[in-house]
Records
---
Amino acid sequence: MGKKSLEIAGPGADGTVAMLHKAYAFEMSTFHYFQYVANNIEGIGVLFEDFFEERAKEELGHAEEVNERLMELGTNPTDDPARWEQENGVGRLQPKRFLSLRSAIEKALEFERVAIGLYNDLANATKDKDHGTYELALKLLKDELEDEQTMEDILARLEIKDVPAAAASA
Ligand SMILES: [Fe+2]
Ligand SMILES: [Fe+2]
């Protein structure tokens, strides 16, 4: 535990720690979402396995950075995966329901936007007070903004349309 770290985080430290616990649960949940999608995606999505695997690694890296900050503030994240979905703010992710390329990316875009809100809130809560957490919030916010842009760009150019039933049988 970093005594000075905690002292600097000041009276708002409890709120900051609560947000970091939530961020950890969120990152571990999205890590699992992306890894599961990478392993199980179907159809043309198999061409994107590496892409989803990369995303999984990135979110796991975020979880590690959040973990590190929690430790500096004198606590550890939960060791119980069952609590991830209770604490992540988005509930059960159910990656098995999103194994087509379009659905997997649409769902991912939702998560990236939640992450942006989360780190923006964390930055607002720590600005001018707790620079250690603030710097981390800014770094993660930047990554999630890039992720949102990536997902939006893919979706905008994804040239797969649902084939109308009539055309499919013609
Ligand atoms: Fe993340
Ligand atoms: Fe992300």
Note: Residues 59, 112, 115, 144, 147 surround fe (ii) ion (ligand 2) (CB under 6 Å).
---
Amino acid sequence: MSTDSTSAASPVAAAGPATLDRIASVRISSVILPLAVPISDAKVLTGRQRPMTEVAMLFAEITTESGHEGVGFGYSKRAGGPGQFAHAKEIAPVLIGEDPSDIAKIWDKLVWAGASVGRSGLSVQAIAAFDIALWDLKAKRAGLPLAKLLGAHRDSVRTYNTSGGFLHAPIEEVLEKSSAAVAAGIGGIKIKVGQPDSAADLARVAAVREHLGAGVPLMVDANQQWDRATARRMCRALDGYDLVWIEEPLDAYDAEGHAMLAATFDTPIATGEMLTSVAEHAELIRLRGADIVQPDAPRIGGITPFLKVMGLADHAGLSLAPHFAMEIHVHLAAAYAREPWVEHFEWLDPLFDEHLEISGGRMHVSDRPGLGVTISEQARAWTVATANIVG
Ligand SMILES: [Mg+2]
């Protein structure tokens, strides 16, 4: 037993009991979030996927013996939600009795519990919800927003809207939503491209650039639907629109192809959202396959692996623009050394009681402890499965 902190009045003694705290229970929930309209990006127009009508959320709520609580979440689109829930339920018992502060150790323990199904993809996406809940819990216990616990470089992050620029929307609607986003204080606008008809893509980009004017940051996202020859032609054609970046011009795993584009054209290349592990990001970064890396914490296994990707990206001198899940990524982007971007989607708003403040082109880190979110009654109503794991 430690004897170096026997005075109840000392800060060390006050911190002591926390290290004796243990995870007492875990609750996981599968929540089906409906979308207002079916969503189509280029993967739908090329026939690879059906329009998206809902997002399958995986929530984890972790409670300790001392009554501390953390909430985390992951997600899947179109397929995978029931698989993520099933894997999370199977490995959750290894959390019970662990010190919730030992997040790195717990991440390893969870991945070893499911080692047979690998260290990427669905298996680590099930771990992500737990990992994010543990970081939320740790920051809440410290009384700090997660960004502050990690060590923030800033208290707000540049933000751009994606949800208004999908391909199911006619151009008039895209223009209207882009104006509304800018009026709401969102700094940039991203639109989807990658249609089989490249001329139609270029017409939409030209229309949005003309509508917004030269001063508004504009990005495009091809969602992996070009081959290398098409990507070269399109990057050349798009170089004149002063885009902040061209996203996923090629297959997500074609790091060499992305590196060729990044080295050839003036417009920065962004990619990484589809990668599902630190190892995959490490390879992308090693090959300089992106000027701007786009990791997604729920997709790569949580905040613990995301911090490793941040380290690699910063060391390589790259920019960061995390994919989706702004409620988590605003904190992580705030802790990145180089001025990043956070992607604005309003889709997850109904799941939480609190909402992020946006003004002046930036998304602000709230002063609430942890992630700063509480699961809403609406999210509870959309819950289709739960599992409670106790010691
Ligand atoms: Mg994208």
Note: Confidence is low (pLDDT under 50) at residues 1-16.
---
Amino acid sequence: MHGAKRASTAGRWTQRSAPMVLSDTHLLGAVGGHWFDKLRREWQMERAFQTALWLLRPEIVFILGDIFDEGKWSSQKHWEDDVRRFHRMFRHSTDTELVVLVGNHDIGFHYEMDWFKLQRFEKVFNASSTRIVTKKGVNFLLVNSVALHGDGCPICQSVEKELIKLSRDLNCSLQSSQSGGGLTDSCEGSQLYPPTSPIMLQHYPLYRVSDAGCTGLDAAPPEERHLLFREKYDVLSKEASQRLLQWFKPRLILSGHTHSGCEVLHDNKYPEVSVPSFSWRNRNNPSFILASVSPGSYALSKVFPAGGEHGDRRVLLGRRLPAAADPRSLYVDERPAAVPQPLPAGEAQVSVNYITQGAYYIRHKEQSHELVNT
Ligand SMILES: [Zn+2]
């Protein structure tokens, strides 16, 4: 079955960026974590991550923040220990680039955040927390969403300034391509990117009332779905969310923080996917997103690295699953109404959710759902 499919889809994959996206690893710190829980969760994540790298060979991996549980208060010694364990668990070859975004547990909520914590985080990952990463003509916009309080705090000001510059650069890039290379005076000195709207990555979700409309096997539990989100703590403020949408008109938003899955459509135009936590401490069925992205389209698969609710030891022990032996055997089809063919037993864990751009069609175990409108 997969032999034929591999041949027909191989060409597509070579022209696409195929990032892997995960979130909220929450490496336990010295204060909050019991040593055995820590050992167990870190072993699970390490095995799942290393197996995914080995099977899927992604060229780039994004982690959407809350890498550490206690970066917000850890002493230098404990911080260094957390960082050392992170590098061991998420080790990768030079063929894979690991890009890490900042979350509130890494540097503290807005009121706890300071330059020292932000800079020590940025130094470990050798990059600014707000920037654009371009791969195969696709712009990935990384946002420090902890600094979008809009209260004029010095870090907020600096991040906003950076975002305004990036928005201008992207607009000028679009203008330049539409006018055949010409730039208006206001675009003088701007940095040019591929002329497509970005895929926006951040820790906090954009503003939504609650998770009441979220569906799927990894949505928040029914008793929690109706709890109202607090602006600036659970989700970005309405104002900051609108500003980001206006500045960047992103074609897709991927965010973390809630630890649960959800798909949301903002202003009837901008789809957002909440990426659940990758830690078994936070949920029984952690997952990551495997995307296939070109400058004009994308398809997302949600991958449950350990199969069913309580984990699949076959994957955790790093044994090769026949279904996932080759990333090209993953089903990728962009026709909005196409129903993916049923997978043989043992393959279902590789691609459970299926999202395409255009019709915002999503599949959860053979049922289709509309995205939640905000
Ligand atoms: Zn968080």
Note: The pocket of zinc ion is lined by residues 66, 103-105, 203, 257 (CB under 6 Å).
---
Amino acid sequence: MEFLINHWLDITTTLLGLAYILLEYKASIWMWAVGAVMQILGIVLYYQKGVYADCGMEFYYLAMTAYGYWRWKTLSNKEGVKEELPITHIPMPLALLWTAIFLVLWFAIWWLLTSFTDSTVPIADSFTTALSLVGIWALAHKYLEQWFVWIAVDVVTCVLYFHKDIPFKASLYGLYVVIAVFGYLRWQRMMKQTSIPKSAVLSILLCLCCTYAQAQDFDKWFQDKTLRLDYTFSGDNRNQYISLDEMKQSNGWFGRRTNLDSLLLLGGGQLCMKDSETGQVIYRHSFSTLFQEWQTTEEATRVQKSFENVFLVPFPKRPVEITITLTDTHNKVKGEMMHRVDPQDILIRPLSSDKSTKWEYLEKSGDSREKIDVVFVAEGYLKREKKVFMRDCRECIEALKAHEPFKSMSDRFNFVAVMLPSQEQGVSIPHKNIWKETLLSSSFDTFYSNRYLTTLRLKKLHDVLAGIPYEHIIILANTDNYGGGGIYNSYLMSAAHNNQNKPVVVHEFGHSFAGLADEYYYDDQYETMYPADTEPWEPNLTTLVDFKSKWADMMDEGVQVPTTPSGNNVYTEVGVYEGGGYQSKGVYRPSQECRMKVNQAPVFCPVCERAIRRMIDYQTK
Ligand SMILES: [Zn+2]
């Protein structure tokens, strides 16, 4: 008993030390809590003994513990879904800097020990102290290599204690060495298993955006080339299969060079590119697909179908892992597929850029590598109708620029026209039994909806655009039949000769460019596109689950939620109006009327306008 009383501090610190390294082995965030207790005990102990230098050191470790906890914890989201900081390799430049700091510290501490103390082992002592000082920083960043530090520290300390004839402590450090070696192996395995979060929810990704917002060096990871990934998405209302079709390459990368590893919107699906060696995310992209829309239709309950999908990504310099994820209306992962891409792969087909496709700038505000490149593609125009097509393109640009924020931010855009003739004039209108041979085989009656005009031939679409600077696609259909369609980060299509074309093209661009949702609704719509327990990812709708992440900051004080439509200032008064996203109940829109609700609206509502502005900034700043 007396032994216990005399040595309680020794015993406690030993047990805590063991708990600490075991939790570290498991990469558990609780290790920081145990660390804090150890350091506070250390502060008390050293202070009582009057060892002020050591006492000061403990303060440093305590601060690093708080920092480490914060770093590891940062990615946990508030819904309680654990998405802690992933284990990664320490980047090379940082490793060099880190080593330099260590050497300086080692020398400084050795000098202090030899000059001011009677230390018998100044070299070893200063070595372990300096290494521990920088090691805890590497641990706070969850770098795999931090284990080497502890292995070195523990080996030296073990030898030191044997040398000083303290066998109990020496064996303890021997044990630490063993745990540290296993810890290294375990972390290495964990690192390989880390992939895109299984339960991705909007807030995690938004959080990632903030954490990883630091500018990535495009040239460090990518060549000035485009990697085109062709996939087939197939299945029915319950199942989805993602298969790689073919990989292609073309010269020049015209997509965004900013915010490479972050997402502004979750979309209906995500693409994540990781450097194979370090596991670092180097590019992210989000999108929506016709396939997922089709999955919500009645047809999907009785037949399996497949859809083409094409994604353009910057061409990596080193082997990468690409993960394609499809999420459902609860923002939960429904389907996922990962594959490796080796940039040296001889089967990545080069797309020649000197083919016959004629294209020209309609408006050029700057280098296509810095601007957002929008391409107009002709569908159902005859060879002799080039002038008509060019005039139609200009009308659409005028329509876009009549709306804020496009008006004041038009210098961020380039517009390109691609006039490729179709065999026949017009497009297919199945409900009128009209079928046409056109460039993209597009048609109305998509999913049996008369006015839904789309093309399913995405590979053909991108084939004709290869080598042209383009990021966003506007397909103009040579028809006066009313309709259109727009899919986020895929394309939009509009009936160029319908008298509603101007508002429609702007509305659909809201979908395809900025990921805006439809703000209109039907009184008899029972299908729930937006479940009540999930905040939609689209910036202009809310279910009030996480309204703060939407336009709460744009509401005037005292505005009631939900807001009763006043009939005044219908385009500008920001509130929370019930009805939107095809549902009359449970979904709320930001204003009474908006370009995303009715064709008569001359403007986007303030919330949509801000969302577009953010998207423009995200792609160019
Ligand atoms: Zn709106």
Note: The CA atoms of residues 222 and 316 lie 4 Å apart.
